[in-house]
């Protein structure tokens, strides 16, 4: 378990790691699309290894988990969907309206999220919708886990600008029945989802 | 549409890009777990930006798609699940037994695939199972698209060594009804999946 950190230290840490991770996302993209010669690829690799050495000089042996600030703010910085320090994450910026039980995220997915040529991988659509439907069930300090998730792919999802929307259908104790969809740039539904999300009972 | 490349050129390209992407996967991992000071993070970012400049000097404006060698081998190098040049991909190494209609993949997921602390993100499990179930439906030059996918999360999936297995339940024209599951290191099922995968009719 990690000690809570002050909001100021969290802010300071974010101010150096956020730009690092943003640069890394761009590097992932150009690694896929690059057409430079072998010598330049090898030079790039040497630079990457040098960066890895620098950052790896002092490592947490655990994955990031979810840390908290002393004022109770959650820092899910390693999360594969929303993590500020995780270059795999688009990252999703989830806007929640807890009163209305809704969540929304606008995102842009590039070459790194491809499945069929020019399209978002069906499994990536599933990841986004899983996270977004789950977000309607989250409560402060009470994460919700996916129980079941059903996806219906009604049209190809083109790479580019997308929106994901989710809402609560009904709740039953610690279970949230949520639904949602993914929309392409023109507002057409490409994938529909429904799922049951569970908040485990906490020890008394 | 890209021109087919010779198997020799594909081999040469793989021999420089595969080590590059492997180094990049390690860099993504240490970016999440690093505890070095701000000055070293900034130095690492400068190296990453330098690598990005080098690789970005000549870029394909399109995502990678699926390219083919002159002898018909598919190169899905940008794919988010299996792409050799995609650092987001674990990558999955899918072993297919086409006769038996089965597919299997062993994989190790580290800090970059985290959802709940210490566990694989539910959406990441969905991505892996979507790809693996879909693999049972693929035919040479006839990719299969996900129609529907249902996931049942029966236990947490710990980060670490995992196995995914899938099989064909039945086929009906261009539709493949597939099922599968994800197993943890001890062989316990953590997620069950079933789905319908569709091979579009080709123009005559």
From TrEMBL, chains A, B:
Name by which UniProt lists this protein: Acyl-coenzyme A thioesterase THEM4
All residue ranges annotated as the Thioesterase domain in the record: 118-186
Family per similarity comment: Belongs to the THEM4/THEM5 thioesterase family.
Enzyme class, broadest EC rank: hydrolase
Gene3D superfamilies per the UniProt record, alphabetical: Hotdog Thioesterase
Species of the source: [Mycobacterium] holstebronense
Family annotation (InterPro entries): HotDog_dom_sf, THEM4/THEM5_acyl-CoA_thioest, Thioestr_dom
Membrane topology: Peripheral membrane protein
Organism ancestry: Bacteria, Bacillati, Actinomycetota, Actinomycetes, Mycobacteriales
């Amino acid at each position: 378990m990690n000690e809570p950190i002050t909001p100021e230290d969290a802010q300071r840490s974010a101010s150096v790691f956020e730009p690092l991770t943003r640069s890394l996302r761009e590097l992932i993209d150009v690694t896929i699309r690059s057409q430079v010669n072998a010598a330049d690829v090898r030079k790039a690799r040497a630079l990457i290894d040098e960066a890895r050495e620098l950052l790896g000089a002092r490592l947490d042996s655990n994955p990031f988990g979810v840390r908290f600030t002393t004022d109770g703010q959650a820092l899910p910085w390693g999360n594969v969907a929303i993590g500020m320090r995780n270059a795999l994450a688009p990252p999703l910026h989830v806007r929640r309206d807890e009163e209305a039980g809704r969540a929304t995220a606008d995102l842009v997915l590039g070459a790194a999220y491809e499945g069929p040529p020019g399209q978002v991988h069906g499994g990536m659509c599933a990841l986004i919708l899983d996270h977004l439907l789950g977000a309607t069930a989250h409560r402060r300090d009470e994460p919700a886990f996916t129980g079941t998730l059903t996806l219906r792919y009604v049209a190809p999802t083109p790479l580019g600008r997308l929106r994901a929307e989710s809402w609560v259908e009904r709740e039953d104790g610690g279970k949230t029945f949520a639904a949602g969809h993914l929309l392409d740039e023109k507002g057409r539904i490409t994938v529909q989802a429904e799922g049951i999300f569970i908040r485990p009972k906490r020890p008394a």
